[in-house]
């Protein structure tokens, strides 16, 4: 009850300071019970796990020196922002991580809680909370090793605020994983017209092309808010097989791995050239 | 699976209807239930550490397999170029004991319920949204209840798992039964050849167990099988010897046609006719070792369903003439374990159809052709009709001459 009360009071005052868009929330509310049907509306998100889970897992494994293959993410605290019904939280939990999943839509959290409740291992490893990112910042400063924002930033009202909040709740040198959709002509045709209106891969009205984020802009925002972008990879969905794969081009879907800069008192080699490197990168991005 | 690194913190339960079987050393006499283990299956067993135990108990490698027809002189010989072991004859008890030892080694992850029997299954609804558990519930005879994310049915050709899951099974009872026995040879020999002769009533096979003993697998009509079981030991031994040695089913026509084909081949491919070895003759049979089993063929239309997978005889059943039954099962295991391990490393729900279907496609592709071929061979060799005998005689001789085809087999 308490979170609900806080939530309804905050809403009218938070339009300019919150990254949550109320129109977006309504869209997801209607489909809250469809999350776990692997062949249903969210089938593409289910199969995205096949590439995004190994991406997160292998990146984290390569950054750590002692790990156990039977429990690869053990001891790692992950925040899943916009967790929806928990589609990504659950595999991360199974791999050993302690996951906190947050989502502003209460029905989603309810679905997620119910789904994990049957598995005694997951029930302990995952905690869900109905909340926006800003709301947990105060109580979770520098708490998480990893933040995952998968298929979220294209629904967010204020991206810069969102990134700032990520930086605040991440530990120094913590990792941020984002997957989202590029803003190109191709993504309009394939991502909206074909995917939503024609083939029904994505429920209609889920995305608004205006809110898509080009990787150059995402990188710019990340780098100017204390992150160092480590990798950007293109993703492609094949509707025939219902499967995702990694591709060279980022013109449709793409994934980003960024690391929050360490505390200023301990500069690392990678952090000493931020300004010049950034200008060079955005220069070439502009001409591409 | 218990030995797989990605299953480190998973829990596996194994329901075994029989008692625990572990041997430190084998009894003097051989068991009459043996299997022909292919090198691929041996690799699987050694990947979980069980093959070492098998080797330390007892097994017999064989280097050569001679298969011939009772109605003609046609013969085919299989052997590896480098004279490596083609396969191994191992008693089933030995394999069980080796596996038991390895199960003990992962007892913290795998719990074996000996002498247990499942009496009921409750299946989850595929898209769960209600309050009932999304897992499979298993009720045991002793009243205990287990629940699991994935139920693997490895309960033989009369699989209860398959029936309860309402998976349709294409099956066909052959009009044959297999008689098994442990035999003692007249004289000690290297005994590293497996022999099989196709009689019109069915194939008779002699599988080596040691220098002086061999295992018999004789597939024949139900009536003949009961006769064999009932007759005294001497007559039984005589029947076996005459089955391997007698030529009464030959006809002059077939012999002539076969000889002509053979000379044609030796012109085209001089190395294409192999040396014919003579099978050993049998002196006596172990008392109490004769047993009979009905034979049939079966194939499940689906190997998997949400949270269910079938492997081994539960999924497919073949005639023993190719010695492949258990090896198909081991192949299923290797494939399923591979997919489950990858799924576990991806954090997936183990019962999810996505990776289960990959297993099904891979194995069905492999198994269906082998099962069909075995069935065709069985039917082809069940007749004395001249045209079919000629066909298979020439076919066998040709296959014997073509190394490419033989290697594939």
Automatic annotation (TrEMBL), chain A:
GO CC annotation terms, alphabetical: mitochondrion
InterPro entries recorded: SAM-dependent_MTases_sf (IPR029063), UbiG_MeTrfase (IPR010233)
HAMAP family the record matches: UbiG
Highest taxon of the lineage: Eukaryota
Molecular function, one GO term: polyprenyldihydroxybenzoate methyltransferase activity
Alphabetically ordered keywords of this record: Methyltransferase, S-adenosyl-L-methionine, Transferase, Ubiquinone biosynthesis
The UniProt record lists the keyword Methyltransferase: yes
BP-aspect Gene Ontology terms: methylation
Annotated spans, Disordered: 265-288
Regions of compositional bias (Polar residues) in chain numbering: 277-288
Protein name, per record: COQ3 protein
Pfam family, one: Methyltransf_23
UniProtKB/TrEMBL annotation, chain B:
Pfam families on file: FAD_binding_3
GO molecular function: 4-hydroxy-3-all-trans-polyprenylbenzoate oxygenase activity; FAD binding
Keywords: Cell projection, FAD, Flavoprotein, Golgi apparatus, Membrane, Mitochondrion, Mitochondrion inner membrane, Monooxygenase, Oxidoreductase, Transit peptide, Ubiquinone biosynthesis
Cofactor dependence: FAD
A GO BP entry: ubiquinone biosynthetic process
PROSITE patterns: UBIH
InterPro entries assigned: FAD-bd (IPR002938), FAD/NAD-bd_sf (IPR036188), Ubi_Hdrlase_CS (IPR018168), UbiH/COQ6 (IPR010971), UbiH/COQ6_monooxygenase (IPR051205), UbQ_mOase_COQ6 (IPR000689)
Domain (FAD-binding) ranges: 140-251, 283-366
GO cellular component terms, semicolon-separated: mitochondrial inner membrane
HAMAP family with a match to the protein in the record: COQ6_monooxygenase
Protein name: COQ6 monooxygenase
